[in-house]
Design goal:
InterPro entries: His_deacetylse_dom, His_deacetylse_dom_sf, Ureohydrolase_dom_sf. This protein is of the alpha+beta class. The chain contains three helices and two strands; from the N terminus they run H-E-H-E-H. Helix 2 runs parallel beside helix 3. The longest helix has 20 residues.
């Protein structure tokens, strides 16, 4: 996905930040952790820095395990803040 995103070279990146893929979420059936969400956020923000002047919009879409959601959102926002600080 990341090479295709770079090739597309967006002028702004919109992240649909859904966290129902977390391993603790009853609906997602996937095995992601907060570290996974932070990693992908960092990678997407890097593409935004390269192609879009760092312009990123993140919209919270979901997550149903509330403790996991809180930790995942915190990791996501921290990754966005770190990316902005290093631009």
């Amino acid at each position: 996905m990341l090479p295709a995103l770079r090739d597309f070279a967006p002028e702004m990146v919109v992240i649909s930040a859904g966290f129902d893929a977390h391993r603790e979420d009853p609906l997602g059936g996937l095995d992601l952790t907060e570290d996974d969400f932070a990693w992908v956020t960092t990678e997407i923000a890097a593409v935004a820095a390269e192609t879009a002047g760092g312009r990123v919009v993140s919209v919270l879409e979901g997550g149903y395990a509330l403790d996991a959601l809180a930790r995942s959102v915190a990791a996501h926002v921290e990754a966005l803040a770190n990316a902005a600080a290093h631009r």
